Amino acid sequence: MKSYDLQIFADYFQFYLKDEAADANFGDAWDEVATARMFAAASGMVGFGTARNMEVPVTLEFLDAEPANNLADFDHVVEGTLVVTTGPLVVAGCTDFFPDADRFPLEPGIYRVRLSSSGLDSLSEDGLDGNDHYLVQLWLASAVKPTVLKQRPG
C-alpha cells in the first residue's frame, strides 16, 4: 500500500481524481443524485463532494486489494469506478491550476474508488473550520455503478 496525505482546496465543495489524458466534462455529472451521494463520474474522472468549501485533508491510498469495510468509522462511504487509460493520476480541486496539480504514477486499468468521509458534522458555524477528513482508496477491480455504502445522516 502507498499512502499520501494531501491538502486540497475543495472549491465548490468538491475535488477530483482524473486520468491525466482524460478529456472529461462534469457539466451534467453533479446532478441531485450525485450531490447526495457525494460522488460524480465522467469518462476518466471522478469527483468527490466535501462538507467545506475550503482546503480539506485528504488521504490517498493505492491498495493491492479491496479494503475492509470500516463503515462504523465514517459518516459517509461511497464507491465507484475510475478507468485509467494512460496515467498518471491527477488529484485536484475543481478550480486548481491543472499543470500544478498533484500527480501520482498509476498503471492503466479499471480501478474501484472508495471515498470514506468522517467529521462531516464537525464544522464551525460559519462552515470554514472543521475536523472533516476524506479517505480515498483505489484498487484494481471490475467496474461498478456509483454505490453508497453508508449514507451521511440528513
SSE pattern: EEHEEEEEEEEE
Named CATH architecture: Sandwich
Estimate the global geometry from the Cα principal axes. Answer: globular
What count of domains describes the coordinates?
1
Question: Helix tally?
Answer: 1
CATH structural class: Mainly Beta
Instruction: Trace the largest sheet across and list its strands.
Output: 1-5-10-9-6-11
CATH topology: Substrate Binding Domain Of DNAk, Chain A, domain 1
N- and C-termini, Cα separation? 34 Å
Number of strands: 11
Rounded to an integer in angstroms, the radius of gyration calculated over CA atoms is: 14 Å
Tell me which oligomeric state these chains represent: single chain
Query: In percent terms, what proportion of residues is strand?
Result: over 45%
Low-confidence stretches: none
Task: Lay out the secondary structure.
Layout (H helix, E strand, L loop, with lengths): L1 E8 L4 E6 L12 H6 L1 E4 L2 E5 L5 E8 L13 E9 L4 E5 L8 E3 L4 E10 L14 E8 L6 E4 L4
Parallel strand pairs: 5-10
Antiparallel strand pairs: 1-5, 2-4, 2-7, 3-4, 6-9, 6-11, 7-8, 9-10
Summarize, please:
The chain is built from one helix and eleven strands, in the order ββαβββββββββ. It is mainly beta.
Outline the structure in words.
With 154 residues, the chain is mainly β. The protein has a single domain (2-150), classed as Competence, DNA-entry nuclease inhibitor, ComJ (Substrate Binding Domain Of DNAk, Chain A, domain 1), CATH 2.60.34.30. The protein is 4% helix and 45% strand. It has 1 helix and 11 strands, in the order E-E-H-E-E-E-E-E-E-E-E-E. The protein has one helix at 32-37; strands at 2-9, 14-19, 39-42, 45-49, 55-62, 76-84, 89-93, 102-104, 109-118, 133-140, 147-150. The strands form 2 sheets. The protein has a 6-stranded mixed beta sheet, with no helix packed on it. It has a 5-stranded antiparallel beta sheet with strand order 3-4-2-7-8. A hairpin with an 8-residue loop joins strand 7 and strand 8. The radius of gyration is 14 Å and the shape is globular. The protein starts with a strand and ends with a strand.
